[in-house]
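Why do we care about 3D structure at all? Because function follows from shape, and shape follows, mostly, from sequence. That is the central idea of this module. The next example makes it concrete: a single protein chain, its amino acid sequence, and then its structure expressed as tokens.
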Amino acid sequence: MSLSRSTMQSLATSFAPNGFPWPARARVRAGGRLLVRERVRFQMLKDRRNKHEHEEADAPAASDKMSRKEFDKELTKLQVELTRLQTWVKDKGARVIVIFEGRDTAGKGGVISRITERTSPRVFRHVALPAPSDREKSQVYIQRYIAQFPAAGEIILFDRSWYNRAGVERVMGFCSDDQYERFMKIVPVVEREMIINNGIILRKYFLDVSQDVQRRRFEARIKDPMKHWKLSPMDTESVRRWWDYTAAYQRMITDTDMPWAPWHIVPADNKRTARLNLIRHLLDSIPYKKVDIALPKIPKAQPRPRNAPEGLRAGKPIPSHY
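And the structure:
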């Protein structure tokens, strides 16, 4: 069977999706065999496109996604405000404690990194205590955390805190039932009397992720050599004990959510929006004001002495590989 060129163009175009024409070679070649072959190929492409559309429909709304460019733009604005908060804290001699708790892989370290990225380590201090030593185990439980409390002009960022007792220690059996119940009973009083009533600003955040997202993030860490340091049997055990941790965290938040020290829950399946939302909330929750800074002027350099070398001659330069 032979078809005219104009007929072939008409038929081929009629099979194109949304009125878009086929490539030129499909329109100009004649022959029923080619038409059938291209029609089958088109149907396969159409099925694939429909499948992709269904997957997109089942995925989170587009508004839940944020491009890297948009994230960086918003983060820069917030980091400017963080430097203003920093100046205000130094000027007023304020003291701030921010607690970051949450499930493993929820992004506590990531949001702390964004907070400290453009601020002074003398003001914003990141505290991530290791497992207690034998000596610390013999102390009052909260004692080693009190040693990290802020002086005037400091903001302490606790990457996990005394709430370890209500989370990992409770689930993994590192504390007795009596120790756990005593902690849950006294911690609201300690926060009120030792922190709030002493004029320290306290903010408590809990970053939460879904079970599937946590598993995917652990799998990604296993594949990425730069994230192997984040892995430990203790961390991955949280995957198996998901519901034990859920129960522990539920009681922790319920029993220690007080008017003077409420918990703020941060949905963290989307890392970018979680980071921005948390930083924005932190800034909005502290009544800081912009403080004018007397910026120094750059003086004129002293004259170069006679016979002085242009650069340093002492020492040995490192190899230049780049």
